[in-house]
């Protein structure tokens, strides 16, 4: 089993719903703690309502009281106060956490409040097993402008001093930049020609968490998660991923787990 601590996207394409779908598609039981409600679809975000930090804490406590969870992921945390609350609970329960530093929706809508990136960098990233920022998020967290793969390598080096990191390559020609234990490498990949990318970052971090829960080493979990998301994008529809259809009709369980 695994835990997602993230926001709610009512369109079902991103956020906690995408995380739970991903966990389920990979055969991992998913629990969820909601940090914010959003009014959004694939094209735009019109509103955000943050959950009070004390209620986020209460959700985590009650989940951990009842379930033996080791691996978790974070998504949209929205505010500095929620970041601090979640970091405290990660330490309390010794969770192995994949941090997806969600700040801006793919449609351009803001999913974070003032002071968020500093709080994330200073308080949550030090608790992370790995962080999975896209290019825009890596720029904010590292302070390094990223226009090329070489720029991303420099940013990964900066963030790698805090925690292991993979800068996902949707804006790097499909190449991911990985830093594990201070060793930076470029993982060459391919871009799938598709508009079905809403929720891809959520699904990548959730799939990584699921594979870690299955017992894979970090590098293998990241590779399998990349394969999972690439095929989900390839066979998605309506601008978003469709993990269930991809899992059931296009890729066998052996393909995903072996």
What does this structure look like?
- The chain has 258 residues and is of the alpha/beta class.
- Helix 3 (80-93) runs parallel beside helix 4.
- It has helices at 15-25, 53-66, 80-93, 116-124, 135-142, 149-159, 200-213, 218-234, 243-250, 253-257, and strands at residues 2-8, 30-40, 45-50, 71-74, 96-99, 128-131, 165-167, 176-180, 183-187.
- It has one domain (2-242): UDP-N-acetylmuramoyl-L-alanine:D-glutamate ligase (3-Layer(aba) Sandwich), CATH 3.40.1190.20.
- It has a 6-stranded mixed β-sheet with strand order 3-2-1-4-5-6, sandwiched between helices. A 3-stranded antiparallel β-sheet has the order 7-8-9, covered by helices on one side.
- Helix 1 links the parallel strand 1 (2-8) and strand 2 (30-40).
- The protein is globular, with a radius of gyration of 16 Å.
- The two termini are 19 Å apart.
- The relative contact order is 0.15.
- The chain has 10 helices and 9 strands.
- Count up the domains: 1
- Share in β-strands: 15-25%
The string of secondary-structure elements, in order, is: EHEEHEHEHEHHEEEHHHH
Using only C-alpha atoms, the radius of gyration works out to 16 Å
Low-confidence stretches: 244-254
Distance between the termini: 19 Å
Counting DSSP H or I runs of 4 or more residues, the number of helices is 10
Q: Can you lay out the helices and strands and say which pair or pack?
A:
Elements lengths: L1 E7 L6 H11 L4 E11 L4 E6 L2 H14 L4 E4 L5 H14 L2 E4 L16 H9 L3 E4 L3 H8 L6 H11 L5 E3 L8 E5 L2 E5 L12 H14 L4 H17 L8 H8 L2 H5 L1
Parallel strand pairs: 1-2, 1-4, 4-5, 5-6
Antiparallel strand pairs: 2-3, 7-8, 8-9
Helix pairs in contact: 1-7, 1-9, 2-3, 3-4, 5-6, 7-8, 8-9
